């Protein structure tokens, strides 16, 4: 599994009347049995829970939508396809090429949260070698360590830089070890090729279970409010307002089912875990329940300040030359529509 994000192949869409949603957000005015296909990029990670559950629990079908899951070999291919309208929707990390495309006038829209660290349960954070972790008391103690990251100039290095800054350090004070596969980072640490890694869960949980890694500082301590992944619409799909709105209603229903079961409660947990274990790379129900889950905002809110921070960091790295207009890039209108139909999320009692 690589850092690359996920996405969807666009489809010719069948015509559909503009129906009013009922209280559950269900589409109205849709011809019986007539579904519009939306091709969605997919990387079989747990962070895809909103789309997976929206599909498996029938929420997309209620909105007159059929999901076609599409795999991409790289994030660059995915973004190119999204920008050209060959794909409709993508969920992926916030990368420099996204800001560069937007600055050139390519109307990709960031429409919903696709992954954040939950305070106290961060899923994308710095983990240290088990034997070393007790000796690294504070951020300044990271100096001189060999830290594995999936790639330079990416969200991995950005988060690491934020941790280093807490100790008055920069990436010049550590040795960056590029390991382009998250699972291989466990091997790198186990073989003493790295002292720690910017890793994702459930691989941190796996590393802890195998005696390789230890959890260290929670990401909320050094990267509070940071947006890791987002749901994106292609310019062409965003222009199909009715369809894009209905997609978001079903997507957030899937997100809320995930949050109810694994983040804020245990509602229908066995059912949700069973679905996710079948449809993602994680097949162990025990790990699914005990891991630090990706945070998916039940109202789709994107922390805009985090997006601004990301762009500023990429500009400091020289990877973004011209700033994109973040107010144009982030479009909350689709999530706002869905929340209007569904109501504000309420955590299970």
Compact description:
This is ABC transporter substrate-binding protein. With 349 residues, the chain is of the alpha/beta class.
SSE inventory with pairings:
Elements: E1 6-7, E2 36-41, H1 49-56, H2 59-62, E3 65-70, H3 75-84, E4 89-93, H4 96-103, E5 109-116, E6 124-129, E7 146-149, H5 155-166, E8 175-178, H6 182-190, E9 196-200, H7 203-209, E10 213-215, H8 219-222, E11 227-233, H9 235-239, H10 241-263, H11 269-279, H12 285-290, H13 304-316, H14 326-329, H15 333-342
Parallel strand pairs: 2-3, 7-8, 7-9
Antiparallel strand pairs: 1-4, 4-11, 5-11, 6-9, 6-10
Helix pairs in contact: 1-10, 1-11, 10-11, 10-15
Protein name: ABC transporter substrate-binding protein
Organism: Desulfotomaculum copahuensis
InterPro entries: SsuA/THI5 (IPR015168)
């Amino acid at each position: 599994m690589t850092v690359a994000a996920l996405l969807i192949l666009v489809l010719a869409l069948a015509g559909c009347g503009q129906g009013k949603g009922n209280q559950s957000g269900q589409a109205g005015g849709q011809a019986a049995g007539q579904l519009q296909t939306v091709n969605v990029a997919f990387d079989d990670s747990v962070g895809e829970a909103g789309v997976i559950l929206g599909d498996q629990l029938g929420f997309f079908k209620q909105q007159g939508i059929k999901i076609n899951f599409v795999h991409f070999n790289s994030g660059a291919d995915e973004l190119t396809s999204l920008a050209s309208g060959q794909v409709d929707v993508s969920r992926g990390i916030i990368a420099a090429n996204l800001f560069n495309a937007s600055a050139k006038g390519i109307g990709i829209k960031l429409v919903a949260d696709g992954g954040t660290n939950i305070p106290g349960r961060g899923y994308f954070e710095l983990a240290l070698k088990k034997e070393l972790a007790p000796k690294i008391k504070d951020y300044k103690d990271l100096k001189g360590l060999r830290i594995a990251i999936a790639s330079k100039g990416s969200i991995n290095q950005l988060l690491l830089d934020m941790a280093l800054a807490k100790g008055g350090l920069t990436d010049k004070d550590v040795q960056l070890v590029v390991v382009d596969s998250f699972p291989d980072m466990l091997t790198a640490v186990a073989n003493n090729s790295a002292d720690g890694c910017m890793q994702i869960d459930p691989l941190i949980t796996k590393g802890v279970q195998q005696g390789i890694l230890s959890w260290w500082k929670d990401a909320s301590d050094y990267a509070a409010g940071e947006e890791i992944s987002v749901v994106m619409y292609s310019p062409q799909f965003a222009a199909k307002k009715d369809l894009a709105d209905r997609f978001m209603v079903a997507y957030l229903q899937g997100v809320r089912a995930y949050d109810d079961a694994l983040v804020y409660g245990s509602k229908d947990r066995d059912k949700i875990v069973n679905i996710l274990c079948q449809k993602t790379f994680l097949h162990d129900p025990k790990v699914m329940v005990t891991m630090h889950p990706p945070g998916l905002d039940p109202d789709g809110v994107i922390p805009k300040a985090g997006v601004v921070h990301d762009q500023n960091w990429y500009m400091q790295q020289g990877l973004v030359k011209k700033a994109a207009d973040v107010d144009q890039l982030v479009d909350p209108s689709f999530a706002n529509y869905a929340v209007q139909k569904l109501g504000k999320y309420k955590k299970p009692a």
